[in-house]
Amino acid sequence: MSPDFVSTRPLLDKLGVKAGSKVAVLDLDDPPFLKLLRGRTSDIVFGKPPTPCDIVFVGASQPSDLEHLREVKSWIEPNGAIWVIRPKGGRSALRDTDLIAAGLAAGLVDNKIASFSDTHGAMRFVFRLRDRPK
Predict the structure, then answer these.
(1) In what helix (H) or strand (E) does residue 107 lie, and over which residues does it extend?
(2) What angle is formed at CA 101 by the lines to CA 98 and CA 102, rounded to 5 degrees?
(3) Which domains does the chain show, CATH number per domain?
(4) pTM of structure
(5) DSSP-derived pairing of the beta strands 76-87 and 120-126
(6) 23, 55 Cβ separation under 8 angstroms
(7) Which one, of 68, 106, 107, lies nearest residue 84 by Cα?
(8) SS3 category, 50
(9) Would strands 109-115 and 120-126 be described as parallel, antiparallel, or unpaired?
(10) What is the pLDDT of residues 8-45, one digit of tens each?
């Protein structure tokens, strides 16, 4: 892939949001994204969902925001995912290594990254196959 490669896939496809997906959103104030999300599914909860979700989107801008991962992992289905959305670039207080370490500490592994916007990136966390709740 050339360094100039830019994905033409729609954002929600990259993030695995299917029509009718159960989604929770925590600490993510991004009106354009929320509008896209509402166009794909109406099953969206802000904060803790009453039942497990397919996908949880968590906004993070500093290391303390990653402490949510321990709790949020109980919000997803065994084959669900948590996307952590964080600022891109060298001025961000969060590095990829911070996210990876926080995921491991919460019992999750990272398995995908995506460009969320011009200013934010996303990293997906899931249960290891052997650690998935039954």
Answers:
(1) none
(2) 85
(3) 16-129 (3.40.50.150)
(4) 0.92
(5) antiparallel
(6) yes
(7) 68
(8) coil
(9) antiparallel
(10) 789 999 999 999 999 999 999 999 999 999 999 999 99
* Chain mean pLDDT for the chain: 92
* Residues belonging to the chain: 134
CA distance 46 to 24: 6
Contact 28, 7 (CB under 8 A): no
Helix (H) or strand (E) holding 78: strand 76-87
Backbone φ and ψ for 96, nearest 5 degrees, come out as -55, -40
User: Which of 23, 10, 95 shows the shortest CA–CA distance to 60?
Assistant: 95
Which 3 state secondary structure label does DSSP give 56? strand
Give residue-wise pLDDT tens across range 112-125: 999 999 999 999 99
Instruction: Give dist(CA 120, CA 17) in Å, integer.
Output: 18
Q: From CA 78, how far away is CA 134, in angstroms rounded?
A: 7
**Of 46, 32, 57, 55, residue with least CA distance to 119:** 32
